[in-house]
Structures are given as structure tokens and as C-alpha cells.
Amino acid sequence: MVNNKLLEVLLVALCLDVAAAAWNASIQQDSRISCEGDPYDFWTTNVKAGHRAFYVDAHETAVGLTCAAKGSSSSDAILDPVVRSHVSLAIFEQDSRMPCALMGGEGWPNFKRKVVRRVNQTTTAAACDSLGAPTDCKYPKQDELGQKSYGGTSFKISMVNGKHTTESFEGSGLSNSPVEGTGKPNAINNKISVAPVFGSRGVTCENDGPKTGWSSSGVVVSGSPLTDMSYKAYVFASEEERQAALADPRNAGLKYAREMKGKNGCDVEIVYEFKPRPGGGLWVELNYTPQPTSNDESKTRALKDTTSSYLIPGENTVVVQTSRSAMRRAQHLPVRPGCDDGMLTVVKMSSLFICKATGLPVNISSITMSRAFADGKRLEHPP
Predict the structure, then answer these.
(1) Which H or E run includes 383?
(2) Tens of pLDDT along 178-224?
(3) Residue 164 CA to chain centroid, in angstroms?
(4) What is d(CA 99, CA 160) in angstroms, rounded to the nearest whole number?
(5) Is residue 29 exposed (0-12), middle (13-18) or buried (19+ Cβ within 10 Å)?
(6) In terms of C-beta density within 10 A (0-12 exposed, 13-18 middle, 19 or more buried), how is residue 150 classed?
(7) In sequence order, what are the beta bridge partners of 320?
(8) Long-range contacts of range 206-210, CB-CB < 8 Å, 24 or more positions apart?
(9) From CA 342, how far away is CA 356, in angstroms rounded?
(10) What confidence tens digit (pLDDT) does each residue in 86-107 have?
């Protein structure tokens, strides 16, 4: 795509051996319930006010997670928006959606009662808390421009040490480009697993198999697309559960994740694990692209044009941001004076790595940003 943001990370280090740990978590028998009942009953019975539940749609090569947050006004209140995340290979995508669209569609196959009276409201009356969304269950440009969501974030670890994470074709197991300096493609593992977070006390509703259904437990998605790279993506039902997970040593690497507060607590924390090149050194490329909300390409282009990044040295953090007003326009929502000014953080990542053998930090020696145009990448100033 034109004007796609790229964040290239270069690390020279000899002590970064962070091979993926085996993941053998299983759902305990006493934490499972049947999905034969009404999902409405699962929501009202098993999800506490202020907590979140997840509809997990897991396949061999991809996992979808829909996060819904419960309000405190009633037992059936769902806060607006719900957040849909999708993980495949080295790609992470996330967008926000209407709760009523969730209830009438995916994840609620047997839903018998429509709770639409609260779903397009937030819990306070403050001007900047109001989404300004339609009161019916239809996106502003759904009919005119095919709008299916309020958009979000898409990013991908595209290369590690010259190896590519894009398959030549789906299921091929080989990269679409050769490893730098070899002329041969690298192997790709497209398998993904999903399991409850260690330390959780939530329950899981199983539907169409053990890994499809609703869960009031946080979950972790794991993948190892390259021999040099693996990851774990964590979502939590509550802050209490997150703290319990941090205290459980079986949640490998979680303590190093950069916490980022999302809407209604629907955060995703991703821990990447990399191996250095033989003899030392690590090179990683991360691609970021705003998720389109409709067929209006000009709105998506405006998001790309306003995207920038910066480094917070004292916090060892790289931040990717975009214009708040451009985001609202891309969502086909009104820009709210005094509410949608400035920039919106969309991605945070660490500017250092942790050596698995020693637990000590290893600084990244160089961070650069470039934009992708039709004729190739153009290097910009460091973030």
C-alpha cells in the first residue's frame, strides 16, 4: 500500500537467546460449561461488571478474539465498542465494532434477546466519552461505502535477520522472497495455538470444538512463524486477572510486555521472542498500517499521512501515533472540538530487549522509520 509505515529495528547483541517455550496449557474440566444454552445467559451469569469476556474463534492457522466489556448499569450491559483482534502468522489486526452487531452476528448464534438499548452508550455523560455513534445498529456509511467496523490497527513483523514471514502462497510453508544473501526461501510455520492464561479463574463455553466459544477467562495466543521468532499475545478479563498472571511464572515473558490501555480495557499485550544471528546481532522489521473502515480510500490515506513515531528514552519505549481527527473522519464520525485534537497512540513497543540467559536488558543500537511507496521504501528521520 502507498505510504505504509515501517519501523525498522536493528540490535547488535550476543546474548539474546530467547527460544520459544513449550505451551501446554489446557482448560481445566471444572472451568468448562456447555454452549448449548443462550449466550445471553453466559454473559449475564459468568461475566462480572467491569470485567471482559472473549469470543474465541480458533483455527489451525489463525485465531480471532472478540473482546466485550460489561457495564455496571445492569446485568446485560455491553460497553461500546467491542474490539475484534485477529492473529495469523506474524500479522496482528484489531478493529472496533458495535456491540449490537456482535450480538446479532458472530459469537451469538443462539442469541434470543436483543439488548440494544444500552449498547451504543458509554457509562458517563461527559462530552468526550460519547462516541457520537448512531443509535441504531448500523455504521454511518454501511450502506453507502460498505463500512463494517470503526477501524483499528494492523501491524506485522515482516522480517527477522533477513528471513521473511510472508508465505509464497497460503499453506506453502515457504517465504515469498529469498533470505537475504542466499537466494533461497526460508521455512515458515503457520500453526497457531490458543489457551487460557495461567492463573485465571474464569470459565469457558465450548462450542463447535474445544477452542471455539465464549470465555470469561483471559487467553494467550502463541505462534512461532520463524526459527528466529516466536510470540505470545495476551488478553485479560480484568486487571485482577492480569496481576495474577504476572505473578505466575508459567506466563513466560509477560512481565516484559508494554502495557497499553485500550478502549474499555480491551488491551492486547504481545511478547516477541527473537534469536540472534550466528555470531551475534539482530535485525527486525515491523510494518504498521491503519485498518480501513470503508471503501473510501482517502480516509485511510489520511491516517497513513498523519502517522508518526517517537522514542521515549527514559522509558525505553517507541510510540507510533496518528491524528485523532483523521481517525474520527476515517470512522465516519463527527470530529468533536476539544476531544479529538492532537495525536492518538496506536502502538507501543520496547526499545530494548531482555537476554533470556541473564535477565539483563540489551539496548537497541539503531531505530529508523521509513515509508513505503510504489517505488520502494524511503528512509525518514529516526523516531
Answers:
(1) none
(2) 998 899 999 999 999 988 899 888 887 765 554 678 889 999 999 99
(3) 20
(4) 37
(5) exposed
(6) buried
(7) 309, 347
(8) 206/27, 206/32, 206/33, 206/34, 206/35, 207/35, 207/109, 210/27
(9) 38
(10) 999 999 998 888 887 665 554 4
User: Which phi and psi angles does 213 have, rounded to 5°?
Assistant: 150, -175
**Could you tell me the three cell numbers for 213?**
466459544
Q: How many domains does the chain have?
A: 1
pLDDT exceeds cutoff 70 at 12? no
Establish whether the linkage from the previous residue to 361 is cis, with ω within 30° of 0: no
Interatomic CA distance for residues 321 and 306, integer angstroms: 8
Predicted confidence at residue 24, as pLDDT, reads 25
Q: How far apart are CA 198 and CA 246, in angstroms?
A: 9
| Beta strand pairing call for 204-206 and 32-34 | parallel
Sign of the torsion angle spanned by Cα atoms 73, 74, 80, 81: positive
Determine if the pTM surpasses 0.85: no
Nine-digit cell string for 158 = 515482516
Q: Give residues with Cβ within 8 angstroms of 213, minimum separation 6.
A: 35, 55, 56, 204, 205, 206, 207
List the domain range (segments joined by +) for residue 192: 4-379
Strand partners, 70: 78
